[in-house]
Structures are given as C-alpha cells and as structure tokens.
Amino acid sequence: MDNQTGITCSSVDLRIASDLKSGVIEALNPQEHVQILQDAGNVLKVQVTRWNTPIVGYVLKSSIIVPKVNLQIFPLVDLGNNIEIPSVPASVPLATFLTWLNSQSESPWLPADYLDSIKNGQKPSVGALIRQTIADHQADWNAWVSEVTQQARQTTATLDEWLVILAGGRTMWSFRTERLFSQPSDGAAPAWVTRNDVLLWTGHVVFNNKEPKYKLWYQVKFTKLDKEFQGWYKASLLEEFIVPTPDTDLTDPANKAKVFDLSHPLLRLPADPEIDAARKAGLRGAQYININAATGWSKVNHNLCGQFCVAALGGSDVIPFLKLWIASYKNAKDILRNDSGTTILDLESMLDTIKKTYEYFRAEASVIPLTPGYLQKVLDSGRMVLAGTGINTAEGQLKWSYPSRHWVVIEDIIRVANSGWMRLYNPFSDKEEVCPYDMVFDAVSGTVIGLLVTPTHP
Of residues 438 and 70, which shows the higher confidence score? Predict the structure, then answer.
C-alpha cells in the first residue's frame, strides 16, 4: 500500500506517532486527500497534501480509502469493436438466475447474433464459463443463497449483492445525513453519517417488513475519529461512491480537459449565421442573436437559452426552429418580442413543435434527489436532461447559485466520489463544455425540474 494515494472516509485524527493514544496534530475532513507513505499494521503513515507545507502523521488504516481494481467475477463477452459486456448482468434476480443455472441452456443475456454463433460452433459456450464461475466460488455462493433464502428474498435479491461480498465490499455515500443503526431498524444508533462520509457496504442485506417506511437495510462498516463501527443503514439513502483516481480527481483542474473527448459532438449544434455575427460583434453570449430572419423585426434577444437547447436536441438551427415555434405556439411571438425567459411549459411547446418525445421530472433534495447515480441511469437510457441552473452572464460561467437562470442540456456524466464531471451543451457559448456536477446542481438542498428528452444525434 506504500506510495499510494487515498482519501479519508470521514473525520480523522492525524496523530504524531503510530500509537493511537499519541497526540493529535491535525483534524482531517471527510474526503481529504493523502499520500500513503508507509503501511504500519493497523495504522498508516500519511502525508496530507492540502497545505503548502505538507503534514506527516499517522491514521487508522480503516479510515483511508484507496482506489481498487474492479474484481471481474463473471466472464466478459467480447462483441468486437472494443465492446465488452458482462455475461450476466448484476441486476439479475437470484430466482431467475437459479432457474437458468439448473437448466442446460446457454446464457439468455447475450445478443441474438452471439447466441447464434455459439449454436453454430463459432464461439465457445458462455453458459459453461458462467457455471464454472459458480463452481469456483461454491462455498461463498452457497452461503449467500442460504442467507437470501432464509429471508425469502429470492425474487428481489440480485446477483449484485453476491458480487459485492466477493469484492470485499463497495464504497457508498448517503445523500442525506442519517444515523448508523446497531440493528436493521430504527433503534440504537452509535454514529451519524453525513453526505461527505464514505461507508463500506459489505454486500449483506436485510428486509425488515416491520419497519413502516425503510424496509431494506444494508450492513455497512464505517470509521470516524478512530472509532470503527459496523451496523445497518437505510439502503434507499445510499449510492455508490466512486473512488477518485489521478485521472478523474475533481480537485485537479487539469482533468477537466481530459475526461471527455469534445472533438466528437453528441449533438448537432446550431450553426446559424446570426450566431457567427454575434461572436464577431463581440457580444458576450453566442446566444445573443438578432432574430429578424424569424420574426420580421430586428431585435437582439438575450434569453434564447431554451430555444437554443431545443434546437440542438432536434438537430436544427435556431432561426428555422423559431419560425416553426411561432407558427405553432400562441405565446411564442410575445416571448420573443419582450425578450422574455422561458418556462418549462414553453420548453414543452417547443419540443411538441418538433415532435420530440419527453418526460417531465422533478428532483427533490433528500426525497428524490438528482444524484450523480440517478443522472447516469437517465443518460444511460439514451435520453438527455434539459434542466435549469444559474449563470454569470458576464463570463458565461455556470453555477446553480447564480441569480440569472439558464437552460442547459446534460449529455453525459463521469461519476467521481459523490459528484462527477458532466458534459453539457451550454447555449450561452453554443458549445459543449465540461463542468463539475456540484457547479451545476445543488443535489443536497435544492429542487430541480426539467425534461428528459430523446435527442437527435449528429
């Protein structure tokens, strides 16, 4: 473990010597970056990099999280073109998997053409490899199946639980402050967990039907201020914590230019000559265009972020889109004439104009928050997120707390820690940009509304 980097999982006492009774020389925050200098048994000698003059001291080993290589249990299937998929999705329920396991059939989770190649003898049996994987981990498999069966959870427990057990746990974070309980129920609670704390889910799960609201509980481990806890946490409040690597770390500004390849746009961006004219005129925003060609009156509008976003989602230039919108929406002319901002109802009218399918969504902090994990599920479904944030109109910088409201299109996310890097279309610059998640959304205490839209790709 020597010469690795790591982060603290919670508040940590940095001590002057390896004896945990020695003096505390500094109190470290959750997710504090450290360099591991030496593994000294149950403690680590670390160097804290936050200050200009680094401080060296000792911390409890369990208080430091280091990046781990993902343990691949089930074999991957190579589909060609550098595409690999798991032979068994982690989301498969145990009952479904057991039914298949006891059959003699080939893996049903493969593409049809790959299955045909197996039947024709062109590819080796994937089903045989999956069954061999179970045999190689038979004792662990039997123990988990027995545990799930005793709780009668075969139809709801997924293979992901077993994979977490084999991997030695999974780092998690809680999107709201809550207690760590001694038992899987609201009762004795030895510790509090905050949003920035990092827990280790062991993979073990209990369903407690006696609880009125939170019935599913995860067994977790947690270290805070030299105290090691093991207890139970409300599963629905947890999301995977993605341990930062040097190439993804949000604290390194240089990573902003590395995490996405913006040379291949995910949307066909508006390219009206009016946009080029706005840039040549030195206007602060590329979206500050003269809409004369669409309306018949010469006027530079400053609140066209919504129109730019919808045009981009539809693969259209702005002026042709405005003409269609004016013809189909009774409020469009007044909005443009008064240079007014647009509401989500106006955005829906724009999407209706170009016959785009969409779904309204609302994220509410601590209830249904717009967490990075939730956002990734939406984006992985093939949709993009048309949502509001804040903008500094003097510089075009996005931040949720800025008072000028602004529509953007979220295209992709790389999750890091309990945050991430987001790739988005910013109509102010008429460009795709990369921003930290926490700059655009306040998932902890904010409410977000928006539309989930299936885009037209270039």
Answer: 438
- Residues 349 and 329 sit within 8 Å (Cβ to Cβ): yes
- In degrees and rounded to multiples of 5, residue 174 shows phi and psi of -105, 130
Provide the 10 A C-beta neighbour count for residue 58. Answer: 22
Secondary structure (3-state) at 190: coil
Query: For the chain, where do the domains classified as CATH 2.30.30.40 start and end?
Result: 5-65
Instruction: Report strand pairing: 199-207 vs 170-174.
Output: antiparallel
Q: What does the pLDDT average to over 196-204?
A: 97
Q: What CATH topology corresponds to 167-240?
A: SH3 type barrels. (2.30.30)
What is the structure's pLDDT at 322?
98
* Angle ∠(326,332,335) on CA atoms, nearest 5: 145
Q: Could you report the per-residue pLDDT of 417-431, keeping only the tens digit for each? A: 999 999 999 999 999
Determine contact, residues 416/173, Cβ cutoff 8 Å.
no
Mean pLDDT of the chain: 94
Instruction: State in words which class domain 273-453 has.
Output: alpha beta
pLDDT score recorded for residue 445: 64
**Spatial separation of the C-alpha atoms in residues 361 and 365, rounded to whole Å:** 13
Gap between the terminal Cα atoms of the chain: 46
Average of per-residue pLDDT across 105-134: 92
Q: Where in the chain is the domain with CATH 3.90.70?
A: 273-453
Cα 226-232-237 angle, rounded to 5 deg: 100
Sign of CA dihedral 375, 377, 380, 384: negative
CB of 257 closer than 8 Å to CB of 424: no
Query: Which CATH number is associated with domain 5-65?
Result: 2.30.30.40
Q: What is the pLDDT of residue 2?
A: 58
